[in-house]
Amino acid sequence: MTNNLVNKTEKDFESIKHVDENRVEFWYARELMTMLEYSK
Questions:
Q1: In the beta sheet, which residues pair with residue 25?
Q2: 6 φψ region: left (φ > 0), alpha (ψ -120 to 50), beta (else)
Q3: CA dist., res. 17 & res. 21, Å (int)
């Protein structure tokens, strides 16, 4: 069960990941906020 949660969470974070021209990965706080179910 834990493996499924980890896999889902990893896929969710990967789906909103951005990569800049130097191949540095980053996430936008506003997108993370929604994923983590914060209202503000």
A1: 19
A2: alpha
A3: 14
Distance CA 3, CA 40 (A): 30
pLDDT score of 27: 96
E strand or H helix at 5: helix 2-15
Q: What is the pTM of this model?
A: 0.69
Q: In angstroms, rounded to a whole number, what is the distance separating the alpha carbons of residues 21 and 33? A: 24
- Radius of gyration over every alpha carbon of the chain, rounded to an integer in angstroms: 12
For residue 13, give the nearest of 23, 38, 21, 34 by alpha carbon.
Answer: 34
The separation between the first and the last C-alpha atoms of the chain, rounded to the nearest angstrom, is 30
